[in-house]
Specification:
The complex is a heterodimer of chains A (108) and B (419). In chain A, strands 2-1-5-3-4 form a 5-stranded mixed β-sheet. In chain A, strand 1 and strand 2 form a beta hairpin. Chain A contains 3 helices and 5 strands; from the N terminus they run ββαβααββ. Chain A has one domain: Ubiquitin-like (UB roll). Chain A is of the alpha+beta class and 108 residues long. With 419 residues, chain B is an alpha+beta fold. Helix content of chain B is 46%, strand content 8%. Chain B is built from 17 helices and 11 strands. A 6-stranded mixed β-sheet of chain B has the order 1-2-3-9-6-4, covered by helices on one side. A 3-stranded antiparallel β-sheet of chain B has the order 5-11-10. A two-stranded antiparallel sheet of chain B has the order 7-8. In chain B, a hairpin with a 2-residue loop joins strand 7 and strand 8. The relative contact order of chain B is 0.18. The interface between A and B is medium-sized, with 21 and 26 residues.
Chain lengths: 108, 419
């Protein structure tokens, strides 16, 4: 199973397996990784799964996948940066094995 | 407060009811009898009533009501904060349904605060996730069309369509029964029980309804334990988080809560939306003309027609906007009013499908945000698509006077349609 590494705002990293086809928000929430809240469960309505895609992965992951994600990113609590994504919208593919995402200090 | 869901203990939380039971710390100038959910003004036009709270009442006031005295909060910002801080605004004991203290159970997961909450959500999240509910799309379309077939046949034979009974109610209830793995034959009985529990505004009737529901569900759980299937009742009955099977109390509290949450809310939402559609032909045309925007259309309609509230209990003394609340005080976040907060949604009563997306409170927020929210969105979306495809033009029956159901889920009693 592909792995994703979640790095919190103090630099602590946790690597967990995320099933192909599942999303990066679930990977965090199901493994109890604090830093990703995902309170709406992936419905693009809460803006609490904000992450910063690691620079090395930016090109592979790409930018927001829909206009709704783009709009909701405007509603996140932490600073918006070039790698900002709502990670419920990042679906695991074989190409994303090893993905690194950084988490903001707070989601709301 | 850490609680052990396997060994439930009734909380010792006082209920205050009436003007003679206002705690001393509540300032007299914040006491109101707003009439929310029970007064004639509310029942005539509940959403207008809740929008008007922003200019008629302070953002936090102490409401005295036959259903219990509590703080009401109406600001979007305050609701986001309160609902996202279960350590301050706790869910324990905040659910208003009367239980037998000698056979007490917790409603799971809504009454379980973190860290135990996630254990239960993990059991069913795969079913109710956006991806999980997509598997139900075909079924929901089929059930929608079956109901429209029956309505068209009835209308062709000279009958009339009463939307709430012919579509709004049977659609979500039958989908719920499919998901739970319970028999469709129970549909009308379930609706009746849910009505008594949620709309009687009488704690004695509510208690009796809950007793009937309990007896049925306990038998259904026993049956699924013996004969597993792929329905959610069976999934919960056989769940073993961290290798430990759930206790009977946990299984029952979980299934019972899904019953309460799953029946009435989508029903009321559809009824509200269809009443509005009947009165707004130009908006109907706009929806039909923008099929690619259906998701944002559904989101805006959910904002405009939210149907319920979030109740909490203060787990510590807490001050907000200069108002001192005390541990043990009950609080209700008036979610529809929060969705009409003019600071967040300018011109809030106008349905505008092109609003910038903001967090809406139709499904609340925080760890206890509605687990059925994605299912509800999908049901509303499919209902709109299938209905408008087949019945694009319709009106309220001339002379109809709309009355709203009293109680904690807001929707019109009946919506008779003609076309």
């Amino acid at each position: 199973m592909p792995k994703v590494t979640y790095v919190d705002h103090e630099g602590r990293a946790s690597a967990v397996e995320v099933e192909l086809g599942d999303n990066v928000m679930h990977g965090a929430v199901y493994h109890g990784i604090e830093g990703i809240t995902g309170e709406c469960g992936g419905g693009l309505s809460c803006a609490t799964c904000h992450c910063y895609v690691d620079e090395d992965w930016l090109e592979t992951v790409g930018g927001p996948s829909s206009q709704a994600e783009e709009e909701l990113l405007e509603a996140v609590a932490a600073e918006l940066k070039p790698g900002s994504r709502l990670c419920c919208q990042i679906e695991m593919t074989p190409a994303l094995d090893g993905l690194v995402v950084h988490m903001p200090e707070h989601q709301f | 407060m850490p609680i052990d869901a396997a060994n439930p203990v009734p909380p010792n939380l006082p209920r205050h009811v009436g003007m003679d039971q206002i705690p001393d710390h509540v300032p007299a100038d914040l006491v109101r009898q707003s009439g929310l959910t029970v007064g004639p003004e509310f029942l005539a036009a509940p959403h207008d009533f809740m929008a008007a709270l922003h200019h008629k009442q302070p953002p936090i006031y102490y409401d005295v009501s036959p259903m219990g005295n509590m703080w009401h909060l109406t600001k979007h910002e305050d609701a986001l904060f309160g609902l996202r801080h279960p350590d301050i605004f706790s869910n324990e004991g905040a659910t208003p349904f009367p239980r037998d203290p000698n056979d007490y159970f917790y409603f799971i997961p809504i009454e379980i605060d973190p860290p135990h909450h996630r254990k239960y959500r993990n059991i069913v999240d795969a079913v109710f996730s956006p991806k999980g509910v997509l598997k139900l799309e075909g079924l929901i379309r089929q059930r929608s069309n079956d109901l429209i077939d029956a309505i068209e046949a009835k209308v062709a034979a000279g009958g009339t369509c009463e939307f709430t009974e012919d579509f709004g109610r049977p659609l979500p209830v039958s989908v719920f029964l499919d998901i739970m793995g319970l028999p469709q034959a129970m549909r009308d009985t379930f609706v009746e029980w849910a009505m008594e529990l949620l709309h009687s505004n009488d704690r004695a009737i509510m208690g009796q309804a809950l007793a009937k529901i309990s007896a049925y569900l306990k038998e259904a759980i026993a049956e699924k334990k013996a004969h597993p299937d792929d329905g959610v009742v069976s999934l919960i009955a056989h769940a073993e988080p961290d290798g430990v099977p759930l206790s009977d109390k946990e299984i029952f509290g979980f299934v019972c809560f899904l019953f309460i949450g799953g029946l009435d809310t989508v029903f009321a939402t559809l009824n509200n939306i269809w009443l509005w559609l009947a009165r707004n032909p130009e908006k109907r045309q706009e929806i039909i003309g923008r099929p690619e925007d259906i998701d944002r259309i559904v989101e805006e309609l959910l904002r405009r027609w939210s149907v319920t509230f979030s109740g909490r209990v203060l787990d510590q003394d807490y001050e907000m906007r200069g108002v001192q609340m005390k541990k043990g005080d009950r609080v209700t976040f008036i979610l529809p009013a929060c969705n009409f907060d003019p600071e967040v949604f300018p011109d809030p009563m106008t349905v505008d499908f092109d609003r910038p997306r903001k967090t809406i409170l139709a499904f609340t927020v925080g760890v206890h945000s509605c687990m059925g929210g994605h299912l509800a969105r999908l049901e509303v979306k499919i209902a709109l698509q299938e209905w408008l495809k087949r019945v694009p033009n319709f009106d309220l029956q001339p002379g109809t006077r709309i009355e709203y159901r009293p109680g904690g889920v807001i929707g019109p009693e009946a919506v008779p349609l003609v076309w």
